Amino acid sequence: MRIEMLGIEKWYRKKQVLNGLEWRLEPGMYGLLGKNGAGKTTLMRILASILKPDAGEIRVDGSPIRDIKEYRRRIGYLPQEFAVYPEMRVTEVLEYLAVLSELPRAAYRPRIKALLKQVNLEEQAAKRVRQLSGGMKRRLGIAQALLTDPELLIVDEPTAGLDPEERIRFRSLLTASARDRIVLLSTHIPGDVEAACGQAAVLDGGRFLFRGSCRELAEKAEGKVWQLEVPAAEEETWRQKCEVLEIQGQGKELRLKILADKAPDPKAERCGGNVENGYMVLIRSQEKGGLG
Ligand SMILES: Nc1ncnc2c1ncn2[C@@H]1O[C@H](COP(=O)(O)OP(=O)(O)OP(=O)(O)O)[C@@H](O)[C@H]1O
């Protein structure tokens, strides 16, 4: 499957939230990064065919979507809030959703069994949804999104609120499912994109600031991000003097992450380029009025 977004626009009343988005997706894993309100969920919902764009179109393998039912059979979607029936048992939820997706009974029974194994919920198969932990619920969410063996899997903010172990487990699950399909993962967490995705995009105010490989995103920070330890009492001075991206530590010593073209101090150490720093460089440059 190949997905192309062409000039996608979306307005909520008089507010434009997506502005002429162009992006092309092929099998592999993509991370969609952006601040709160950047438009990530809106774009995901358009791709999931829940919302219609006000302008532009989505093309699938070069053609506009004509048969929405057929398109929906080819995609899986895990929304930000995956609210399922708390009193239902795990297997019942999946059976119920399989029936809604019009999967034949003979096909869905073995499929559900295999999926529960894949997402490591075999032991919870007979449990009620309300008895599951947050991480287990997310894994159930992925199982339902994979029910129809979709060619495009859309996952909105999957790791929010998960502990580190569950986050890693969830990421691995997504990476494994991206072998022969498109997986699009929206998140605030650059580390998740770095760990799991080959490609990324950064959305800000409804426009893409970046589309490309994670390596290219990391390179945006090359030579521009510095680390410096300073006495806590100097925090305000440094904030006024430089573009401080991040402050770590408490007590007498603080570690600052500073955005600057040259070393802000002889003691400053250059930080390596990574997705998080690349992302911060892009967002800060945008806030300062464009990438010039
Ligand atoms: N149904 C709606 N009606 C009006 N405005 C909306 C609606 N849904 C979203 N918005 C606005 O559209 C913009 C984009 O929202 P969206 O939820 O797509 O962003 P997001 O990047 O997913 O944010 P978050 O990371 O907080 O979920 C925001 O300014 C939001 O307030």
From TrEMBL:
A molecular function GO annotation: ATP binding
Source taxon at top rank: Bacteria
UniProt key word Transit peptide: no
ABC transporter domain: residues covered: 3-230
UniProt entry keywords in alphabetical sequence: ATP-binding, Nucleotide-binding, Transport
InterPro entries, per database record: AAA+_ATPase, ABC_transporter-like_ATP-bd, ABC_transporter-like_CS, P-loop_NTPase
Transmembrane segments: none
Family affiliation: Belongs to the ABC transporter superfamily.
PANTHER family (UniProt xref): ABC TRANSPORTER, ATP-BINDING PROTEIN
The name this protein goes by in its record: ABC-2 type transport system ATP-binding protein
Species: Lactonifactor longoviformis DSM 17459
